[in-house]
Design brief:
Length: 360
């Protein structure tokens, strides 16, 4: 027995000597202490917030591109201003497009009078969006996109944070902890967010938003997966700074020795799986820029990668034994991979059916 312990000690010391020549990573987690409230501003929180902000900007860009220049009745904020400008000859192109009878009726109209609904119906397809946006008579596409994206982002943030937190507590911690203290769900600053739980939370929030906004659920997913990739990139960088989600031991030259691992383990050279994932999400985001059915491709690519990268991660869930064939992250990834593949196949068959229908 003593000889075995001595041998283990020799190997461990040799391992530490080897690790001394590798990248040592032990940065401060806090940037500064905020005055007045005396709370620390941490890198993870800043990167998390920046990832969501960047995701919002990308979502705004995507959604604004989908908006048409056609003006609908909900866009018009000042019908009286439009009619008044027509009377005064300030919108000559639109005035010339009207028939003489309508021109005569509009000349007799004065502010405060009710506007004939038939006028609105006739004028709507003739309205020039850029000109009326400059005059302030209609809501701009930029304003419409801002309102839509802000509402959607609020739903997504609530769903993502609560879902990720609850997912971590359900899948990676003893259930008894949550039963004893249900408020753990809301203490997100204590750390512990599961991406699979975040996906489930986002799905629920999108279902609610889709019903309220009358936008198709799958369309919302298509719009959101690209921002999600870039947000996930910064979140994983935050995990790297926090020294959490540790990789397995390795002797590869790019191994990283974490000075104070979040799980309390001894410093040792490990796979920097946080960086692997961050770069993968960044690459997938760039791929999604050039493809259709972004949602289907995201789930297929991101969670297939996630399935295999889990082999390089230390055990995280207390619910799955270390001798199990697959870990918790892999089990949770399988349904999402299947979802992506089904979506791709179904979408391709649907496109083929539409193509055949157009042919005949």
């Amino acid at each position: 027995m003593n000889s075995i312990l001595v041998t283990r000690s020799i190997y461990y010391n040799a391992f530490l000597c080897y690790a001394a020549n590798m990248l040592s990573w032990d940065p401060p987690k806090e940037i500064l202490t905020l005055p007045v409230i005396e709370r620390p501003l941490v890198w993870y929180g800043v990167l998390f917030a920046f990832g969501f902000w960047l995701g919002y900007q990308i979502l705004f860009w995507i959604y604004k591109k989908t908006l048409s220049n056609a003006v609908c009745s909900e866009d018009v904020t000042n019908w009286e201003g439009i009619i008044s400008h027509l009377q005064n000859g300030r919108i000559p192109d639109l005035w010339q497009a009207l028939d003489p009878v309508m021109q005569r009726r509009m000349r007799n109209w004065s502010r405060g009078q009710e506007i004939d609904p038939r006028w609105k119906k006739i004028l709507l397809p003739l309205l020039d969006r850029p000109a009326l946006e400059r005059l302030g008579f209609i809501r701009s596409n930029k304003a419409k996109a801002k309102i839509f994206c802000e509402r959607l982002s609020i739903h997504v943030i609530i769903g993502a944070v609560l879902g990720a937190r609850l997912g971590h507590l359900l899948f990676y911690e003893p259930l008894s902890d949550l039963v004893k203290d249900p408020l753990l769900v809301f203490r997100v600053w204590e750390g512990g967010l599961a991406s699979h739980g975040g996906i489930a939370g986002i799905f629920i929030s999108l279902a609610v938003f889709a019903k309220r906004s009358r936008v198709r659920f799958l369309q919302l997913v298509d719009w959101l997966v690209l921002p999600a990739c870039f947000a996930a990139f910064f979140i994983r960088i935050g995990n790297f700074i926090n020294q959490e989600i540790l990789g397995t031991l390795t002797n590869l030259p790019w191994a990283v020795v974490f000075g104070h691992p979040a799980d309390g383990s001894m410093p040792a050279p490990r796979h920097p799986v946080q960086i692997y994932e961050a770069l993968a999400y960044l690459a997938i985001g760039l791929i999604l820029l050039g493809v259709k059915k972004r949602g289907a491709w995201f789930f297929t690519l991101a969670f297939t990668f996630r399935f295999f990268i889990e082999f390089l991660k230390e055990k995280q869930s207390v619910l799955v034994g270390s001798d199990a064939l697959l870990n918790m992250g892999q089990w949770l990834s399988l349904p999402l991979i299947l979802l992506g593949v089904i979506w791709l196949v179904y979408g391709q068959r649907g496109a083929q059916r539409r193509s055949v229908a157009r042919t005949f």
